[in-house]
Specification:
By secondary structure, the chain is α/β, with parallel strands linked by helices. It is built from eleven helices and 14 strands. Strands 7-8-9-10-11-12-13-14 form an eight-stranded parallel beta barrel, surrounded by seven helices. The protein has a four-stranded antiparallel β-sheet with strand order 2-3-1-4, with helices on one face. Strand 10, helix 6 and strand 11 form a beta-alpha-beta unit. The longest helix has 26 residues. The structure holds phosphoenolpyruvate and manganese (II) ion.
Length: 354
Amino acid sequence: MIITIRSQATSEERTQLMTQVCRITGSLHPITTTVIDGQELIVLDGTSLANETQALLNEQAAVERITRVKTAYKLVSRAFKAENTRVYVGHGHDCEQVMIGGKIPTIIAGPCAVENREQLLTTAHAVKHAGAHILRGGAFKPRTSPYQFQGLGLEGLHLLAEARKATGLPIITEVMEPELVETVAQHADILQIGSRNMQNYPLLLAVGRHAEKRPVLLKRGLSATIDEWLLAAEYIVAAGNPNVILCERGIRSYDQQTRNVLDLSCVPLLQELTHLPIVVDPSHATGRRELVPTMSRASIAAGANGLIIEVHSDPNNALCDGRQSITPEQLQKIVREARLLTQIMHEEVMVQVA
Ligand code: PEP
Ligand code: MN
């Protein structure tokens, strides 16, 4: 249940409401509220509250409306918010402003890891030329082995900021620990939470509480169910940051042929369950560069709001994930195909309307 508090409510009316909520829920602690898009909300887990109890709350002068949400996730659910969330990227930085969540798919591209200045700048210019809207690049890398390249850290962030200045492309990079959220957010336009950290709750809270509400791209956990994933997103939104983008990047299975299994059915399913935008990462999902173009087309056809693709100017010599990285020329073709597919899908919508 989500209670929207009237913005005009007096402090007495608010106190009265809080007392009622404490009484109904049996809570001994003060009720905390969440502010989303300027609206103050109380989110209650109880789905079993009787109709009479709800009616009692509804009568409270401080209540604007009550939304019943049956699922465990509340604020990210379609039941709470019917219209699609649009996430605006690039705020506060001198770069192009990009919107994720509309009909035109957003293309995010760049190397797995920032390796050095030349590699990043060359790739950044090339992906821009290929039609990408946002540049990706890992500065802090969550590597399976401690002996693999761990990223350039802070130096990588500075190089990303330089690449943004040179190309005008907003940048996305991963943040792995709560203590680094502020630093990474100063440089990045989107904070990426990697698959291995989807259920790192202190990290989810830290990006949720970020003062400027820097957009967050939340990757699906290695073996996460859709409900677990949506609840991880709920942590961020409930902590105060509504700018969340979901990213399907494949889930673990028994088959060794591909790195992961791309769960494309989650795209249309999520569009029913949540108002948050969803992008697909065909690179980590397949682990094979030859599969990336086909799965990119399939993702757009499934209704994804965008793609995040690993691109390297010299994939065979990449320090990280070269096997799944494509060249800028291949990206250009994918961008063209994505545009054409979108056009066809929209025309179809127009025909249906006519
Ligand atoms: C990445 O984007 O480079 C990455 C590490 O992805 P994931 O968290 O999906 O494995
Ligand atoms: Mn990678």
